[in-house]
Amino acid sequence: MEKKRKIEVFKYNENWTRKFREEVNSLKGILGEIAVNFHHIGSTAIPGIKAKPIIDIVVEVRDLEAVDQLNKVFSEKGYIPLGENGIVGRRFFIKGSRVERTHHIHIFLEENQEVERHIIFRDYMIAHPDEAEKYSKLKDELAQKHTYDVEEYINGKNQFIRDIDEKAEKWWNERI
């Protein structure tokens, strides 16, 4: 019987930033000149909120086809290549196993809209700690309610994330 992924959120950990930087060094070794930018995204990039201890990294690259040619190298370094995995134009890798993972690597062609959306969400949440706290509480409640149901945990966050994306985009555009 396959072990199920357990959804647990933990208090913010300052080591998450260090783990991001360490992983970027590893990714630079794999991607070399293809890589343009690396961004720490997701809840582990938002100080003060609870998160699953999985570091989300967005990588902007010059050439997605070149990334596809590196799947074997990624596998040898402990990553599982999952292709687009539901988002057109993305290459998605998990580090570890499907059950016990430490990192999510989202690779996009540079200047992809998805990259900007993630960065704007992160920056908005950092600038609005009251919204970040609401998100933290929601994640905690969902993790307790859906401890072994990843889909329901994700579905429970969807509307909140859509609402924040809308507010964040408006906030971002007003700043420019």
Automatic annotation (TrEMBL):
Signal peptide: none annotated. It comes from the Bacteria. This is GrpB-like predicted nucleotidyltransferase (UPF0157 family).
